[in-house]
């Protein structure tokens, strides 16, 4: 077996030289996915004290525990942000990472206010929700939006890679894919959540409610003279205030806007804007429900 392993090693090494584009050898040190996953876990403990801990936190110890958590996150996240910034600017000073990090950590009280409103939205919008505790402990969308709201702040600070790694960590855990660039207003709720996609340039207003399988995605992409997709630009739809979008609906295009107060029914495919206070749905023109005996007697 040793000779076989030596042969495989030579072949893999040869592939490193032959297959480019997926190697990072002799390059800058990239952010660590494992480290960022651990930081995301710690952020959840910080945002929801006592809910992501194996043991209860007594108020007498809260200041010490909070200071320790903030310090631990700051040290580790600064390292990952530094590595990320140096991909674009090899000589980027530590102070640049520290500035972005302090902006993020200083926003934690505001993020907690938004998350409290999100929990309220879930409690008000889901008759199956029995308590805030149930929502915080078991609703996947809350983890997804908590991490996205933090990642969005780093995205606004033009930090590469780290925000996307954060939201993809949440995506893997929850099945909810929210790009860190998406701007999402307060009192937001995703019921069930599986398969929801919200694109980078989407903006959602206050009191928006989505159901499973909703996609806010791009319709088409501009290309350059070589046929390659142009990066950036407004590509994803916007949603006004107090909008509900039911399951498995797809809304496409950067020029598409769903007006405030509107409701979009299930399984709708939408590529045009909708005025305020609209109801959008497909009429069931072909659905038939008949007794089985009647159907079996039908010669057709």
Under CATH at level 1, the class of the largest domain stands as Mainly Alpha
Strands of the biggest beta sheet: in what spatial order?
A: 1-4-7-10-13
End-to-end Cα distance, whole Å, is 66 Å
User: Which CATH architecture of the largest domain is right?
Assistant: Orthogonal Bundle
Number of strands: 14
Q: Could you estimate the helical fraction of the residues in percent?
A: 40-55%
- Give the domain tally: 2
Instruction: Briefly note the structural class of the backbone.
Output: alpha/beta
- CA radius of gyration: 24 Å
Please tell me what the overall shape is: globular
- How is the main sheet built? 5 strands, parallel
Low-confidence stretches: none
Describe the fold and architecture.
The protein is α/β, with parallel strands linked by helices. It folds into two domains: 28-175, serine acetyltransferase, domain 1 (Orthogonal Bundle), CATH 1.10.3130; 182-300, Hexapeptide repeat proteins (UDP N-Acetylglucosamine Acyltransferase, domain 1, 3 Solenoid), CATH 2.160.10.10. It is built from nine helices and 14 strands. Strands 1-4-7-10-13 form a five-stranded parallel beta sheet. Helix 2 (33-47) packs antiparallel against helix 3 (59-88), helix 5 (108-125) runs antiparallel to helix 7 and helix 7 runs antiparallel to helix 8. The longest helix is centred in the N-terminal third of the chain and has 30 residues, at 59-88. The mean pLDDT is 91.
């Amino acid at each position: 077996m040793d000779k076989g392993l030596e042969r495989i090693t030579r072949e893999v090494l040869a592939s490193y030289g032959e297959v480019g584009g997926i190697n990072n050898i002799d390059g800058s040190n990239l952010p660590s996915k494992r480290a960022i996953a651990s930081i995301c876990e710690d952020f959840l403990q910080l945002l929801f004290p006592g809910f992501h801990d194996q043991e209860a936190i007594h108020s007498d110890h809260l200041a010490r525990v909070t200071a320790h958590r903030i310090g631990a996150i700051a040290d580790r996240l600064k390292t990952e942000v530094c590595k990320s910034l140096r991909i674009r600017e090899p000589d980027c000073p530590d102070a640049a990472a520290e500035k972005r990090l302090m902006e993020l950590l200083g926003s934690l009280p505001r993020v907690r206010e938004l998350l409290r409103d999100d929990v309220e939205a879930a409690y008000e919008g889901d008759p199956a929700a029995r308590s805030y505790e149930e929502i915080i402990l078991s609703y996947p969308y809350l983890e997804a939006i908590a991490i996205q709201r933090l990642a969005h702040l780093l995205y606004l600070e033009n930090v590469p890679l780290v925000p996307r790694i954060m939201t993809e960590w949440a995506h893997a855990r929850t099945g909810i894919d929210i790009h860190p660039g998406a701007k999402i207003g307060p009192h937001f709720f995703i019921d069930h959540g599986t398969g929801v996609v919200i694109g980078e340039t989407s903006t959602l207003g206050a009191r928006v409610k989505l159901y499973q399988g909703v996609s806010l995605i791009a319709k088409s992409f501009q290309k350059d003279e070589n046929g390659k997709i142009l990066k950036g630009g407004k590509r994803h739809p916007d949603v006004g205030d107090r909008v509900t979008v039911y399951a498995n609906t797809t809304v496409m295009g950067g020029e598409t806007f769903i007006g405030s107060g509107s409701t979009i029914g299930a399984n709708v495919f939408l590529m045009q804007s909708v005025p305020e206070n609209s109801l959008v749905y497909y009429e069931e023109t072909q659905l038939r429900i008949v007794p089985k005996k009647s159907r079996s007697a039908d010669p057709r």
